[in-house]
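Exercise: predict the fold of this chain.
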Amino acid sequence: MMGARQGTRSLLMRFLSYYAGQTHLFVADLLCALTIAGVDLAFPQILRSLTHGLFAGDASAIKPVLVYLLAGLAGMYALRFACRYFVIFWGHVMGARMESRMRQDLFDAYERMSLSYFDRNKTGDLMSRLVNDLFDISEVAHHGPEFVLIGIVEIVGSFVILGHISPQLTAVMGVMLAVVVAYNAYANWRMRAVYAESRMRIAGVNARLEDALAGVRVTKGFAAEDLERSKFAESNGAYLDSKTRMYRAMGRYQAAIAALMGALCTVIVVGGGWLVAEGRLQAADLATFALYISLFTSPIENILNFTETFQKALAGFARFAEVVGTVPDVRDAPGAPDLRVSKGSISYRDVCFSYPDEPDAPVIRDLTLDVAPGRTVALVGPSGGGKSTTCALLPRFYDVDGGAILIDGQDVRSVTQRSLREAIGLVQQDVYLFDGTIAENIAYGRPGATQVEIAAAGRRARVDEFALAMPDGYDTQVGERGTRLSGGQKQRIAIARVFLKNPAILILDEATSALDNESEQAVQESLAELAHGRTTMVIAHRLSTIRDADEIVTMEGGRVVERGTHADLLARGGTYARYYRMQFGHDG
């Protein structure tokens, strides 16, 4: 229980930190809220004074006083109008700015995360945290301080005035108020878990939707629409069940609060009538008391109802804080220097690695491998042999469990990730193009590049062969994930990116395995030009693409089983020769 309270307190302190930078709006919002509360408190008292004083005197003196009263009330409510406008407009702007900062912080946290984090979490769930979980934050950020301040002023002010009018009725009201507060605390404790479950379920719906939309071509190809509908119906139904439980809890809560407030008003009216009948309370005072009862109970209801929104926001903010507070698995050492590449030599020294979610299943075992500067080394072997993982360890997408990886004698863990990855160019089989133009996707290799530089990179990658034939040339929209382009065209854009980046080290991860023969030849020519003069590691299943590599390394079970040139390995008649015969049916 103590841990839960400390956790909630920690969340609140983190939430309050987002008011920094909004101090002027925050203070002005509270001052306006205080003014609104003061005006609301003043009106019943003015009416009571009129009833007891002015209306009980000479009627001829009423009219001149009413003129001044009209002017005073008009000014008072004009001020209230201006304050209300400020609270609604600028208060909401303040909340929206805080929400925007949180959303940016969450996105920044995603960008800091290591790949292992995205291996463990679904894209739809991450999107839900970015969009849905922050939905109520703006309202809480704005209305929280406002409701609390107005509520405290109006509740305390009304209670003092009511105690002056009738101590007996006020004492009864205080007892019933204690019951309301106690029930509110109990109900909110019960609802917190319900709201948290609802957040989790909508994240599941988002994850299912993202998965279905991303794989829609596979779904269409296998006529599996009914299967996807049933999967979505399952997650959607689970969300509906959680929402039903949430609304049931909400209904019980609001109905109980309304019943308690109704009981309070009933007791006050009946008790006040009894006191009037006994001559212990004037009728005008009872009317004033009734006005203050409304003023007293209204902020209580606002605060109690606001706790529902607060609980939703707290559940969402807890998920937000969980991500923002996550420490990436791969991070720079304190004071890490930038990588300085002079030659581009690569050394794997007794490297061992297991993926974080499967620590007992080693993928790389005692790997020792040297790649000389400017040389091309090809990694071949069966799926799951550790080829892609070996290359993924070089730019520190993951950290090794044992051993070390060196570039020009510098341990990749000792330098900044940015400088390390700026020195490495990566071309993969599954090319990802961002929604935008061909030029924008090429420029991803070096933001800020000029159109001349982009076009030069495009020419070297043979992009201009198809781009210039399009009506908009390099300004042609590629569509979401490059859906308007062929596989070979997307691959050449990916190569152009790396040409523009101009790294010292190159990783080619099965860059041509999914292409037809004609596209493969064109892309292979571009890759050959790209690799010229760079230290290059190539992963290939098509052995015809790596015959000219300076060295071929065969891997199985995360280990090097043989290495040499194409001719040497064929002559040995080992694992590589067996793979080659399987693909081509002969040696040579």
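Check your answer against the key: The chain has three domains: 11-324, 344-423+505-588, 431-502.
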